[in-house]
Amino acid sequence: MGVQVTTKWLGEMRFESTNPSGHNLFIDAGEENGGKGEGYRPKALMLSGLAGCSGLDVASLIKKMKLDVADFKIDLDANLTDEHPKFYDKVVMSFHFYGDNLNEKKLQKAVDLSVEKYCGVMEMFRQFAELSIETHFHNS
């Protein structure tokens, strides 16, 4: 199989989950669902996984292409279905690049490579969600 993650119940609505990186994370429900909000929400973690996966691709390509980028961030806006089991059926992913010397063409190429070729988490999301990708350039 390959990857192994163990998630241990800590009582009430709290869990601790291992990660192959050696950094564990905590999962908890919000107070409205009997938790204390002392951990990550599982569905939101999926969005962080998506942004992180694509972000790592783009960061690697920025380095490889020797692009001048002061900063970048990825905003995700996800729609949750009304019926149980609730899942994300629509996700808008917005890449924001900041700098005073942005090569927009090459940065767009980096985003496209991640979206179309490299990001495995994105491929998983495609199985259940409609994805929209936007790229915004903020020249200082």
UniProtKB/TrEMBL annotation:
Pfam families in the record: OsmC
Domain of life: Bacteria
Stored InterPro entries: KH_dom-like_a/b (IPR015946), OsmC/Ohr_fam (IPR003718), OsmC/Ohrsf (IPR036102)
PANTHER family listed in its UniProt record: PROTEIN YHFA
Protein name: OsmC family protein
